[in-house]
Amino acid sequence: MKSSHKTDHLYLSHELKTIDKNIEWHQHRKKRLEEKLRTKLAQQRKTSFVQKSIPAGIALGFVLFTYVFIVNLLNPSSSLPSSASLIEGVHYTYEMEKSKKLPVLTQEGRENSVYPLDASQSIKSLSGEPEIFLYLSNIGGKQTIYSQAFYSTTIAGQTISIHTTPHSETVDELVTSHLPHKKFPAESYTAEEVDIAGHRGVLQINNDRSLPRLTVITDKNVYYFYYTADNGHPDTLIELAKKFKFENDW
Amino acid sequence: MYSKREKEQIVMELYEAHSEALVKYIGLLINDFHRAEDITQETFLKAYRGMNTFNHKSSFKTWLFTIARNLAYDYLPKQQRNHILLKLLSKPPQLTVSIEQAVEMSEEIKGLYHTLTHLKITYREVIILRKIKEFSTKETAVILGWSESKVKSTLSRGLRELEKMICEEEHYEELS
């Protein structure tokens, strides 16, 4: 800051105004926080529903417990199938990284995942195989699978990120929640429903077309496709999503 | 009264419009942009929960900044203690860095940013709102819960203090 302007409030005011413009919050962090917020809002909705439904839930739970108990008692071999479709040692193994035990997909796991490994062969703007990460949660003895993949593009620093979040809502509800509200439509972006290999999706495009985002909803998971840097093309997201092997949806 | 779906839609709209401004505001206030993201998320969740009690006397933006400021204050006491310790040790405060930088800051403003983080919190917050975020005196008074005259007088004192600190730093740099 120049000494000649030290006592000039106007100069200082001008300098202060530039602070905001000179701090850049990364767009991919904005998107990530947006997804976290959406998930939290969905949880809140469910929590308040659960709170209201506790008396009915207890009664229903008791009936179900009794039913399962009696069925198992009468036929011990008819245990309920496991919801987990990934087998440890076959589809994934654990590796130690910085004293943490992390699940890592095996080659068989990668090949049988929803993520296409050869997408770059037919989509020219992609480069190489994706990096795929797995997150397993075992809350309450129920295994929940989260995954994230990164597809490098031919533009330096430009990556397509896809992550999944399991859901327990109807596809209809989730599609509606991603489309513009009828009374309060978004002004900063447009969104339209798209068909992705028989699955319903919503393509969201900012007015400045800087960061398109695609959301695909299957019966089990929500898939979020987005670029980690500006100037990605929405058609590539759709093209890539159409190559996904949704029959392997975990 | 808004339905849950309507509240969600409004909150996501507000997020699109104001999340960046909030992250920067909180980050500047507490000098921690990672924590600022958490506080921003909590701000929108609180807005969702309180949507039906919002009286519309101020704009949604002013309301969000009021919530954010109150949440940031829950975090500040501990951070302020660290800040005092830093000052005692005569080390300039560092932009919080973890695995990944939450924000990029151009070199030209780093000096002013660091000086700002050394400023007394009441001065800092009124300067951020009035001079950096460019809220009006009335809006700033709503966000801070102060009278408009307090906003004006604190701003004036804050700017004087900031200038003084800049002069001292320049003097120190010249000596070294």
Q: Percentage of helical residues of chain B?
A: over 70%
Radius of gyration of chain A: 23 Å
State the share of residues found in helices of chain A, binned by percent. 25-40%
Question: Rough shape of chain B?
Answer: globular
Strand content of the residues of chain B, in percent?
Answer: under 5%
Q: Kindly state the mean pLDDT of chain B as a whole number?
A: 83
Mean pLDDT of chain A: 78
Family (chain B): Belongs to the sigma-70 factor family. ECF subfamily.
Domain RNA polymerase sigma-70 region (chain B): 14-81
Keywords (chain B): DNA-binding, Sigma factor, Transcription, Transcription regulation
Pfam families (chain B): Sigma70_r2 (PF04542), Sigma70_r4_2 (PF08281)
Explain the overall architecture:
Chain A: This is DUF4367 domain-containing protein. Chain A: Keywords: Membrane, Transmembrane, Transmembrane helix. Chain A: The chain crosses the membrane at residues 54-74. The complex is a heterodimer of chains A (250) and B (176). Chain A has 2 domains: 27-79, no CATH class; 81-248, no CATH class. Helix content of chain A is 35%, strand content 29%. Chain A is of the alpha+beta class and 250 residues long. In chain A, 23% of the residues are buried. Chain B has 176 residues and is an all-alpha fold. Chain B has a single domain (4-175), classed as Butyryl-CoA Dehydrogenase, subunit A, domain 3 (Up-down Bundle), CATH 1.20.140. Chain B has helices at residues 4-30, 33-50, 60-88, 107-118, 121-132, 137-144, 148-175; one strand at 103-105. The radius of gyration of chain B is 17 Å and the shape is globular. Chain B starts with a helix and ends with a helix.
